[in-house]
Specification:
With about 160 residues, this protein is α+β, with helices and mostly antiparallel strands. A 5-stranded mixed β-sheet has the order 1-2-3-4-5. The longest helix is centred in the N-terminal third of the chain and has 28 residues. It is elongated, with a radius of gyration of 25 Å. The chain starts with a helix and ends with a strand. One of its GO terms (molecular function) is endonuclease activity. Pfam families: UPF0102. Keywords: Endonuclease, Hydrolase, Nuclease. This is UPF0102 protein EDC26_101455.
């Protein structure tokens, strides 16, 4: 009977190898690149927002701001862009609006949104201070970049911590 156990084991190994090959072929047929998967996962509104953030990033980099973080999330909220403008740590909120009804993109950064940004900045500040300022508390600034049909606008020091 030891021969029978050996045959069963060999059949099981063959079946396992066949299943692995079949799975690999199926995955290769359905393989989607990471970039494609990201685009598929985003809603049209998210794609517009992502495009606006890319425009804002390019504007800031052209002005000499070194972008060190993008779309950082914590319990308090999200910070769209974090940059270094010489010796100043800049937290940037990017706002996009199709039209200027209701005050436009800049007006949408209301007091509540400002407070969420400030709380989020407080969350990330210790790690950013250690990484880029040798542990010292850096000078910080809150900027807003608005993307609207008539153009892109960078509002430096859009609000302060009261």
């Amino acid at each position: 009977m030891p021969g029978e156990d050996q045959i069963i084991q060999e059949l099981a190994q063959i079946a396992q190898k066949t299943a692995v090959k079949r799975r690999r072929r199926r995955l290769a047929r359905s393989r989607v690149t990471h970039a494609d998967a990201t685009l598929i996962a985003l809603s049209p509104t998210q794609r517009v927002g992502q495009h606006a953030e890319q425009q804002a990033k390019e504007l800031l980099e052209a002005a000499g701001v070194l972008i060190v973080g993008q779309n950082l999330r914590c319990k308090a909220g999200e910070i769209d862009l974090i940059g270094l403008d010489r010796t100043v740590l800049v937290f940037v909120e990017v706002r996009h609006r199709h039209d200027s009804r209701h005050g436009g993109a800049a007006a949408s950064v209301n007091r509540s949104k400002q407070q969420r940004l400030i709380r989020s900045a407080h969350y990330f500040l210790p790690a950013l201070g250690r990484r880029y300022f040798g542990g010292a508390a850096p000078v910080c600034r809150f900027d807003v970049v608005t993307v609207e049909p008539h153009g892109i606008n960078w509002i430096k020091q859009a609000f302060t911590i009261d």
